[in-house]
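Dear colleague,

Thank you for sharing your sequence with our group. We've completed the structure prediction you requested, and as agreed, I am returning the results in plain text so they can be pasted directly into your records. Please verify that the sequence below matches your submission; if there's any discrepancy, let me know and we will rerun it promptly.
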Amino acid sequence: MAGAQHIHVAGGICNLSSPLQITRSVNVHGDGRTAFSGGHQITGWGPSPRHPGSGILVADVSHFPIPEIKSLRLGGTALLRGRWPKRVGDGLTSPNFMFAMPWSQSVAAPADARTWHGLGIDPTKLPLSAQNFSDRGVWHSTYAHILGCVEKDVNSQLTRVMNVSGTPEPLCGVLFRNAFTVAQRFYFENVDWGALDPSEFYHDMLNHKLYIYPCLLYTSPRPRDS
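Please find the predicted structure tokens below.
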């Protein structure tokens, strides 16, 4: 056919059993609310026994096709991975972060390689449920998001917490490029720690459970474990 070809995509959800293939050059139009999103539908939600009366839901994802769930949508809303400290205001103020303590162990490796670093954490800034460093399940799925790895507050690295050891000066073992400094800002991501807020989720990779606090149903935070 002569002239440009057009596809107009309306609102709604259409789950495809195979990839969408467009074999010619076309113009795709939406209505401002339209999105193409690759994903896998998760079913079997129910109240979380770990969080009685909280409104938090859980699903078994032991048969999910990938081992880690980094993003999640509920209807048209993108949920955020649970974090600690919780976000306050615009996210730039000190209450939103922890800070690398003086006992941190961080030396830059040659050739920009990722090597083991010890991120010193102040245990008094953690909720009670996160202060049990011997409980593998508490920290198994945790990431550390360290801000400003090369230029302060410009670059950042998100890295898996490999282990937590030592008291009263605990260290989070992480794989890291370059080096961070004492008092460098960071926060933990993909954590529950008794403090999920509406619109947050947490993937427990040890026990293959996915927890969500559905923002569409609940609008006020539940009491936190502090």
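Summary note from our side: Confidence is low (pLDDT under 50) at residues 217-226.

Kind regards,
the structure core
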